[in-house]
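Issue: ligand-bound run for zinc ion - logging full I/O for the record.

Environment: standard queue, default settings, no custom constraints.

Inputs:
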Amino acid sequence: MGGYLGNKSKMIAHHLGNMKSECNIYEIKMKDREYFTPDTLDNAKSKDYESCKFCID
Ligand SMILES: [Zn+2]
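Outputs:
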């Protein structure tokens, strides 16, 4: 489970419920992490995030 996590330094949104090793989520600095309310991909995209090509189809 889990929603979406944005990497502010790269402006890429990851799906936490489907994360892959290629996402390197644990290397995202705390200050670069953004969570979304509501926790949806559409909301992330509306904030100019792109979907991660590894964990989001
Ligand atoms: Zn990802």
